[in-house]
């Protein structure tokens, strides 16, 4: 099988077909229609074997995760996912692997109503790069730069489960059977909070998704907004699986800097806070206030109640 046979068989005709896609896979470029009154949001994410995933990982889960982590970036900006491009580097063509990877990719793209519209394939060490595009009403994109002193800091869902799932896969931590399914699902099959992100367009002052751990990601908002923050570690939302499986110190460590949660981290001004619960209640995702924005530019303080909390770990960094 050659490159173009590979593209035709696994990536040309499967998945959702959007009416705003004029030209898709198979040409020199895609032709796409952005709606009047909307801005285009573009994000890129690369996953490399032995850095972001194990080479023997289930390829179906890998296809799912590649789409979900890119769509999560769009969700953090309040955007509707629309189109995907894939750059696929393979050491060799293994059709069984490709079939499962493509199935996971297409079913997840269908779930988020976005279409694969192009990309590239090449030979080399296993690496996956996706460019995701989305649309947001003009001027309504939520960025990292809008946090103001006094804003409340929120996160969706629970933190630390994916990191615990990684420890289970690596054989570094024992977990009871009743919790294994939950943490492995969170690690292999993350969910992007797309609908909730769109609901926050007129409420959140800033937002991002948590990919490298809360302690590593929140400082991005602080730098872009020129503010500081404090977090109460006693308020970090943790699942029962995490609480049952770890000593408190490890649970806090995983929740703060475990990474790959893909939950939304966002700030809300006090005058919009009262409507938040009503606004988000239809989405069935718990939202927890964990701290506030301060005027100490760039400084992240950790507390346990009223007491300082000393912590050295940071989020994941490539370099």
UniProtKB/TrEMBL annotation:
Task: List the Gene3D superfamilies.
Answer: PurM-like C-terminal domain (3.90.650.10), PurM-like, N-terminal domain (3.30.1330.10)
All residue ranges annotated as the PurM-like N-terminal domain in the record: 26-132
Q: Matching InterPro entries, A to Z? A: PurM-like_C_dom (IPR010918), PurM-like_C_sf (IPR036676), PurM-like_N (IPR016188), PurM-like_N_sf (IPR036921), ThiL-like (IPR006283)
Residues reported to bind ATP: 119-120, 144, 211
Any extra remark in the record? Reaction mechanism of ThiL seems to utilize a direct, inline transfer of the gamma-phosphate of ATP to TMP rather than a phosphorylated enzyme intermediate.
**Residues that coordinate or bind Mg(2+) 5:** 212
Positions contributing to Mg(2+) 3 binding:
28, 73, 209
For this UniProt record, the keywords arranged alphabetically read as follows: ATP-binding, Kinase, Magnesium, Metal-binding, Nucleotide-binding, Thiamine biosynthesis, Transferase
So which domain of life are we looking at?
Bacteria
What's the protein called, per UniProt? Thiamine-monophosphate kinase
Name the residues that bind Mg(2+) 2. Answer: 45, 73
List GO molecular-function terms, semicolon-separated. Answer: kinase activity
- Function summary: Catalyzes the ATP-dependent phosphorylation of thiamine-monophosphate (TMP) to form thiamine-pyrophosphate (TPP), the active form of vitamin B1.
Q: What is its EC number?
A: 2.7.4.16
Protein residues bound to Mg(2+) 1: 44-45, 120
Instruction: Please name the source species.
Output: Alishewanella longhuensis
Q: Where does Mg(2+) 4 bind?
A: 28, 43, 73
Q: Which family does it belong to?
A: Belongs to the thiamine-monophosphate kinase family.
